[in-house]
Structure formats: C-alpha cells, structure tokens
Amino acid sequence: MTAYPAAEAAPGAPALTLRPWRPEDAGDLVEAYWDETMRRWAGPVVDDGTGAARWIRERRRDWETGDRFSFAVLETQGPQGRERLVGHAVVKGLRPGGPSAEVGYWTAAHARGRGVAPRALLALTDWAFALFGDRGPTRLELLHQVDNTASCRVARKCGYEQAGILPAAPPDYPLDGHLHIRTRRDACAEKSPQVAC
C-alpha cells in the first residue's frame, strides 16, 4: 500500500501527518466534538469516551473491509515534536477499477483558519489517486451542505469544481448539497508527484 498521506511544513504551518485512527485518539475526538460547528456538519455526534471508542473501532473496521479509509490529521507541535489532533480526512468507495470515490474532512475548532483542511485534502487527494495507480478512480467527489461556505472555499481552493446541487434528503441531509468534483486529469495537470498519470 502507498505510504499514508502527509503535507510538508509550509511557512507558518507545521507538517501534517495523516494516519489511521487509534484507540488513544478517543479523548481528542471527544474534545473535537464539543464544538457546535462540528456537531452540525460532521455526522454522528461523539459525546463521550465510550462513543469515541466505538467510532474509532468502526473506522478501523472500515479499513479492514476496504469500505473507507479514515485518517486522523495530526500536526507536530513544540520542541518535543508532540502530535496534536487537528482534523479528520476520509475517502469512501475507493476500489480498484471503480470510476469514482468520495472524500470528506473536518477540522477541529482550535485548528481552523490555519490552512489545515486544504492541506489535508490535497494530501488525501494525491493519495487516493495514487493508491491503485492506473486502476484507481478517475474522479473524486466532495459533498457538503449548501450553507457550509467554509467547505465550499476549501473544495475550490483544492481544485474541486462545483458540478451541481443535490436535493435535500431529510433527516440525514436536511438541506440541499453542493457536489464538487476533481478528476485525475486535473491532478496530473498540476504535475503532483504522488499521482500516477
């Protein structure tokens, strides 16, 4: 398997490491879900350590079945190189021979406004296109509610062009959604070193 995604340090921004969720991430996951914005847009809410442990077990099981690949996004901080959870990135439906897959992400409240989401999304995008080489998907889709303007900005910044509006499907999706798409051709045009063109 291709190495896990990563984003190199940039001026004013530490390097990001994306790796599968681990049981020891449970406390940080609960803390991330204290934020009302997270609770609004990030799917099933994690309220406590038991819920976090269950959520992490489900993400690990997804890896085993190949249904989805979920990553804790970590930032290295301080002289000791302590890693701190700053977000989550996921790709769903990524299979050899599959024409498309879906990406998603969230950023912890304490890390917003520092470019974490776009850097993590670009690293995940390169990884998803490279994982199966020429047998991988030719396009990646990103979905978000129409009122999530921050996600819309991140998608566009990362080359995911808006391709349509999806109708609401309550109760899980109470509002219409934006569909953004990025193709392998777009990634190759940028000559990303991780993407097999």
Q: What can be said about this structure in brief?
A:
The chain is built from 6 helices and 8 strands; from the N terminus they run ββαααβββαβαββα. It is α+β, with helices and mostly antiparallel strands and 197 residues long. Helix 1 packs across helix 3 (49-65).
What does this structure look like?
- There is one protein chain.
- The chain is α+β, with helices and mostly antiparallel strands.
- It has helices at 26-32, 36-41, 49-65, 116-131, 149-157, 184-189; strands spanning 6-7, 16-20, 68-77, 82-92, 100-107, 139-145, 161-166, 177-183.
- The chain has an eight-stranded mixed sheet, with helices on both faces.
- A hairpin with an 8-residue loop joins strand 1 and strand 2.
